[in-house]
What does this fold into?
Amino acid sequence: MCSRIILGGTALEKKTIAGLSIFEWQEKHRLLNKLVNMDEMFWLNPDYGTELDDTIVLADQVKSAEDRLERFADYIVEAFPETGPMHGIIESPLVEVPSMQENMEKSYKVVIPGKILLKCDSHLPISGSIKARGGIYEVLKRAEEIAMKHGGLKQTDDYGILASEAYKELFSNYSIAVGSTGNLGMSIGIISAKLGFRVTVHMSGDAKQWKKDKLTSLGVIVKEYDDDYSKAVEEGRLEASLDPHCHFIDDEDSIDLFLGYATAAGRLKNQLEDRSILVDADHPLFVYLPCGVGGGPGGITYGLKLAFGEHVHCFFAEPTHSPCMTLGLMTGLHDKVSVQEFGIDNKTEADGLAVGRPSGLVSRLMTSILSGSYTIEDQRLFELLRMMAEAEGHYLEPSALAGAYGPIHLLSHQTGREYLENHKLLEKMNKATHIIWATGGSMVPKDMMEQYLAKS
Ligand SMILES: *Cc1c(COP(=O)(O)O)cnc(C)c1O
It folds into this structure.
């Protein structure tokens, strides 16, 4: 009954993963066929809504992350004057996209009731992507620890003093390292170099040249690997472990990154309130988040669940060639499985999402709070990229468009309708808000953007 796998041939058929052959896995999970064949699919999480036992502990931690970012606001203004109008709080606009909504309805022949908003992390200050949340937060936390322990900093000080030569010199005794497909390296590289840390970014083979060039120009050491993201992380982790003064930012397993991302939710709540947009039992909120290793979308989902509980419905978006989080959740193997083991090649133009193995920390935390996920073909990312540029004048990178396919999937696929029926949402959709989380793009060079536009 199960369809044959295209890739790999007999070697793949005989192989077992966690004790089962690929065919046995496919029999257990109906949608695994589509994942393995790299077809688009929409998956509902069967464990959604079960108890989340560690909410309380993490809720406190999210609060303390919010407080820490506020303490650093004076430093951020000092170091990055462009954040002045926002008083040193690194936050992105939430905008309406009515023409995009109309275009999506026409092109995909689907009615999208309710209102679509775009969350423009593409325009976050400092590094122009969602990574300006988690990445910068973790470096700031590290800087605060060092400054308190060795530089006499107190919580009540004006953190603007951290921009002084004395603190830069202190930080220059320490280093930061990270493995990245590009954007995390950018945000960590930029903030670390600004503070005065020595910083090394281990880049995967798919990282774009302009990102490496930009970092090198800032004095960041860039090490390149002819391999994927997991390898870059592994090498970075190994090298950092040899240096006691080096802090490794572990994108696969960092609670601090996760917390930095989670702080987005409280701020989004304020933005919605400012627009008088309700989120409650009669006004559901749907949020569509592009997912790579999981920290960004996972942290935000966690924060949103703390803020809105059952009234928010979060879906992850992954490329058909890199569906690592969907695979980890569907099989329950979390980080104990990679897409490559299932013959999926992890080759995508959506470089921020080119990850073959999910974060185990995030995958486990998502088990009960993620509504579902879906995959999208690269070609469609480019179509949506062009549509967004032409309809709204927002220029985003391919990864950032993965979320735009969410409302279409949800409202036009049988599985999506099933979700709405199960949660008694069908009759409330006129009052729904859909947020497409646009995760990056403002720093993409013009010629690169033109290449993207030409691809649709
Ligand atoms: C990193 C990234 C994501 C996904 O974040 P993860 O934490 O890797 O899941 C999405 N979009 C862009 C543009 C990114 O750089």
About this structure: The first strand starts at residue 16 and ends at 17. The chain has a mean pLDDT of 93. Residues 113 and 429 are 6 Å apart (CA to CA). Residues 131-150 form the longest helix (20 residues).
